[in-house]
Amino acid sequence: MAPAATSSSKAKAVCMACRARKKRCSGERPSCSNCVARQELCSYPPVRHSAIGALGRNSNGTPRSSDHFQFQPYTIPSAPPFYADLPSSTLPPDFDFAQDFCWSTATSGSKQAPFHTPPSTEDPSPPTAQDSTPELFSIPNQITSYPTSQAPLPSEAPGESTELCFVDSPSIDSFSNIESEPARDAPVNVPSQPQLDEICSIYFHRYYPILPIFSEERLAEALRKATTTQTTSDSPLLYAFAALVAGNHPSTDVKSQQQAWFKKAKHLYEQTSHIPYDPLHTLQAAACIVLHALVVGDFSAAWLVMGKAWRQTVALGLNQMDSLSTNQNGPTAGWRELEERRRTIWSLFILDRGICFPMGLAHTIDERQLRVNLPMDENTAQSTDPPPKDVASVLFTPNLRKLLSLVGGASQQSSPNVYHYLIISYLLLGRIVEHMYRPEADGDDEDDAEQDRSMLESLQQDVSHMRLMMPRAATEIASAAHPNCIYVVWMNAVMNVNTIFLFHRTPRRLERPQGCNDDTESSGCSAASNWQLCVAVAKKTAQLIREASLVSTDLLVNPNVSAPVYTCARILAIEHLLCSSPLESQGRASHPTGLLADLQAFLLLFDRLSEAFTGVGSKFRYRVLDLLEQGPEHAREMKAAGSKTLRDNCLQWQAAVLASAPD
């Protein structure tokens, strides 16, 4: 008997609702007659492996020439939708099947799922009516794209048919800016060797303190190898590094290729596996992509790339690279490569905390899973000779007091490593943000409130203890070595944000006394109860900016300090609007001394940032100007709400950005 006749003997497909009720099902698509009568959503079970074999054959029963991963769109005969017979009162007034069920109207009269199937030359004959509806199959090594990046599809006459296309199951990492992905055949110019030499020089002059993950010799060798081998198009490091630094290159030709290099780097990094061929260079490329995405405001790509980089780190075991078991059983590597691994992991940690704290995002890197030594000092790391054996590395521990003691002990033996204190400041920032954004449940009781107060007191003590533990060479520009000055500014800005987040916070429901409301600025009732302490910290940040500008503005041109500085500027903007200092005898409010000068210092810093890093500086500058144009009522609401209002959607800033943009 022919295979086609065999398939006709199969029982009709039964929907899940009829199967549960043990009723006879008509098997009609998209909704059987019973489900239409009951006004229920009709769904069919997923296809089984036997159905895959049937779909892999031609209409005459012979196997298809292509493998079973080549599927054709399943054409649904035109039929009224399952909700056509429902009373209008049962549906929302704005109900739309195409929108609510993730369909997109590609052309007039045709609704198509927002994905494309792989190209095929087979006859697009639909499966037999007896077969089950195929599920979403996974197509290996196939990245789909949305119809917005494709040519328009041929239009169909209304009412003819709707086409449901199968799609592969890409991971979440492949959804980072799919629309901005470069075309597969679009040429992307590879930087020439002279351009790479200039880019390397600019990196070590301007970017190395911000992202200290490369050594000069190994970086030059890696880039030279990437441009001379056949695997140039597969190396994300080359394009990620070039895109990061191209904005500060004097050549307009290099600047014009920055966006193309960035898209190419993201595309190549998305293709890397969880255990990449070149682990270190892959993670370094991820760090460059995340930093550049932070600069240009592509926070979605930064967050997704960060997540994949951390998963790769764990899969490679690099998060435990300095634990005892890893040292005994792990592969050996040169001391310089080990140091680059440590610096890359800690740079990713800093970027993760810096991206998440303004928006309250969940952190990607779990500090409790890290057993990685803190980085060496710069002179040792960039030296051509191996480090002396008597130089002991500082092993990271989540115990903050113990970690401060270890770092302090190492500082007494030599000059303090301010980068170590910077890492600890971000460690504190992450814990404070987790405490501040922790959700509050209705079922919380007094024990939860007591635990919350205990955690808050512990964090306050940790901030105070760290400030007292740090030597003046790590906190004062006048006492610090010149290479450490940028870290002094950076670390102080983060520590000031830690203080603001601890004291400008909205008390939880169980922390407030009875009869207390948000408008009451008494102790324990509002985020404004410690307001003057927050104002003092913000003014200290403005003073730090002026002190650093006496040395060089290069100490301030750091995209990582933009969000902390904006947090402080926001405090002074609210203070300026409310005039919250004590009233003078004449009955009018007076501004704190130098308040306008402090705000001017913040705005000038954002101007310098916008010159070096287009996007991040202008964004925060326009937001500060927008805050200053608000009325006292809006400022009073932000003052009482606490630092959680930093989570405001950046789309709300669009009006201020457009109004301040030059014509």
Automatic annotation (TrEMBL):
GO CC aspect terms: nucleus
Pfam families per record: Fungal_trans (PF04082), Zn_clus (PF00172)
Domain of life: Eukaryota
Keyword Transmembrane found: no
Gene3D superfamilies per the UniProt record, alphabetical: Zn(2)-C6 fungal-type DNA-binding domain (4.10.240.10)
Keyword Nucleus applies: yes
Subcellular locations according to the entry: Nucleus
Ranges where the Zn(2)-C6 fungal-type domain occurs: 14-44
Main location: nucleus
Keywords for the protein's UniProt record, in alphabetical order: Metal-binding, Nucleus, Transcription, Transcription regulation
GO molecular-function terms, A-Z: DNA binding; DNA-binding transcription factor activity, RNA polymerase II-specific; zinc ion binding
Positions of the UniProt region annotated as Disordered: 109-163
GO biological process: DNA-templated transcription
Comp. bias intervals (Polar residues): 129-152
Name of the molecule in the record: Fungal-specific transcription factor domain-containing protein
